[in-house]
Hints:
By secondary structure, the protein is mainly β. It is built from no helices and eleven strands. It has strands at residues 2-6, 9-11, 17-24, 29-38, 45-50, 56-58, 66-71, 76-81, 90-99, 105-109, 113-117. The N and C termini lie far apart (37 Å).
Amino acid sequence: VQLQASGGGLVQPGGSLRLSCAASGNILRINTVGWHRQAPGKQRELVAQLSGGGSTVYAGSVKGRFTISRDSAKNTVYLQMNSLKAEDTALYYCNLNIRDYSYMDFSYWGQGTLVTVSS
Protein backbone atom coordinates (compact mmCIF):
# COMPACT_ATOMS: atom_id res chain seq x y z
CA VAL A 1 0.00 0.00 0.00
CA GLN A 2 1.21 3.48 -0.83
CA LEU A 3 -0.10 6.81 0.42
CA GLN A 4 0.33 10.05 -1.48
CA ALA A 5 -0.36 13.22 0.46
CA SER A 6 -0.77 16.54 -1.27
CA GLY A 7 -2.32 19.97 -0.97
CA GLY A 8 0.06 21.74 1.38
CA GLY A 9 1.49 25.14 0.66
CA LEU A 10 1.81 28.73 1.75
CA VAL A 11 -1.39 30.52 2.69
CA GLN A 12 -2.20 33.80 4.40
CA PRO A 13 -3.89 33.87 7.79
CA GLY A 14 -7.61 33.42 7.35
CA GLY A 15 -7.14 31.44 4.17
CA SER A 16 -8.05 27.87 3.30
CA LEU A 17 -6.34 24.74 2.07
CA ARG A 18 -7.52 21.22 1.35
CA LEU A 19 -5.17 18.35 1.99
CA SER A 20 -5.61 15.04 0.22
CA CYS A 21 -4.24 11.59 0.96
CA ALA A 22 -4.73 8.98 -1.71
CA ALA A 23 -4.11 5.30 -1.00
CA SER A 24 -3.34 2.65 -3.57
CA GLY A 25 -2.46 -1.01 -3.57
CA ASN A 26 -3.75 -4.03 -1.67
CA ILE A 27 -6.83 -2.41 -0.10
CA LEU A 28 -9.97 -4.25 0.85
CA ARG A 29 -11.29 -1.57 3.15
CA ILE A 30 -10.08 1.61 4.80
CA ASN A 31 -11.10 1.85 8.43
CA THR A 32 -10.19 4.67 10.77
CA VAL A 33 -8.29 7.53 9.14
CA GLY A 34 -6.64 10.57 10.61
CA TRP A 35 -4.55 13.64 10.06
CA HIS A 36 -1.72 14.51 12.40
CA ARG A 37 0.67 17.42 12.40
CA GLN A 38 4.06 18.26 13.77
CA ALA A 39 5.25 21.82 14.19
CA PRO A 40 8.96 22.64 14.58
CA GLY A 41 10.14 21.76 18.06
CA LYS A 42 6.84 20.14 19.02
CA GLN A 43 5.51 16.63 19.25
CA ARG A 44 3.24 15.18 16.61
CA GLU A 45 -0.40 15.67 17.51
CA LEU A 46 -3.71 14.35 16.27
CA VAL A 47 -5.63 16.95 14.31
CA ALA A 48 -8.68 15.02 13.15
CA GLN A 49 -9.86 11.43 13.00
CA LEU A 50 -12.70 9.75 11.13
CA SER A 51 -13.79 6.23 12.02
CA GLY A 52 -15.08 3.65 9.60
CA GLY A 53 -18.50 4.22 11.08
CA GLY A 54 -18.36 7.94 10.41
CA SER A 55 -17.68 9.38 13.85
CA THR A 56 -15.17 12.19 14.07
CA VAL A 57 -12.71 13.53 16.61
CA TYR A 58 -11.04 16.92 16.33
CA ALA A 59 -8.33 18.63 18.31
CA GLY A 60 -9.80 21.49 20.26
CA SER A 61 -7.60 23.99 18.47
CA VAL A 62 -9.09 23.13 15.05
CA LYS A 63 -12.70 22.31 15.94
CA GLY A 64 -15.06 24.34 13.82
CA ARG A 65 -12.34 25.24 11.31
CA PHE A 66 -11.16 21.87 9.96
CA THR A 67 -13.23 19.08 8.46
CA ILE A 68 -12.06 15.55 7.76
CA SER A 69 -13.80 13.51 5.09
CA ARG A 70 -13.28 10.52 2.85
CA ASP A 71 -14.15 9.32 -0.62
CA SER A 72 -14.25 5.54 -0.32
CA ALA A 73 -14.55 5.02 -4.06
CA LYS A 74 -11.27 6.87 -4.57
CA ASN A 75 -9.56 5.57 -1.40
CA THR A 76 -8.85 9.19 -0.56
CA VAL A 77 -9.04 11.15 2.66
CA TYR A 78 -9.32 14.92 2.85
CA LEU A 79 -8.72 17.62 5.40
CA GLN A 80 -10.46 20.89 4.63
CA MET A 81 -8.78 23.65 6.59
CA ASN A 82 -10.48 27.04 6.88
CA SER A 83 -9.68 30.19 8.84
CA LEU A 84 -6.06 29.15 9.03
CA LYS A 85 -3.86 30.64 11.70
CA ALA A 86 -0.11 30.99 12.03
CA GLU A 87 -0.17 28.32 14.71
CA ASP A 88 -1.50 25.82 12.18
CA THR A 89 1.89 25.89 10.47
CA ALA A 90 3.24 22.35 10.54
CA LEU A 91 4.03 19.24 8.58
CA TYR A 92 0.76 17.35 8.16
CA TYR A 93 0.67 13.57 7.97
CA CYS A 94 -2.19 11.30 7.03
CA ASN A 95 -2.65 7.97 8.77
CA LEU A 96 -4.88 5.26 7.32
CA ASN A 97 -5.78 1.96 8.91
CA ILE A 98 -6.29 -0.48 6.08
CA ARG A 99 -7.55 -4.04 5.81
CA ASP A 100 -6.01 -5.88 2.88
CA TYR A 101 -7.37 -8.81 0.88
CA SER A 102 -5.75 -11.25 3.32
CA TYR A 103 -7.94 -9.69 6.03
CA MET A 104 -4.85 -8.30 7.71
CA ASP A 105 -5.00 -4.82 9.27
CA PHE A 106 -2.14 -2.37 8.92
CA SER A 107 -1.53 1.27 9.76
CA TYR A 108 0.10 3.42 7.10
CA TRP A 109 1.50 6.94 7.17
CA GLY A 110 1.77 9.41 4.34
CA GLN A 111 4.98 11.27 3.64
CA GLY A 112 3.86 14.57 5.09
CA THR A 113 2.80 17.76 3.40
CA LEU A 114 3.93 21.17 4.64
CA VAL A 115 1.40 23.84 5.54
CA THR A 116 2.75 27.32 6.16
CA VAL A 117 0.42 30.07 7.33
CA SER A 118 2.07 33.44 7.04
CA SER A 119 1.45 36.92 5.72
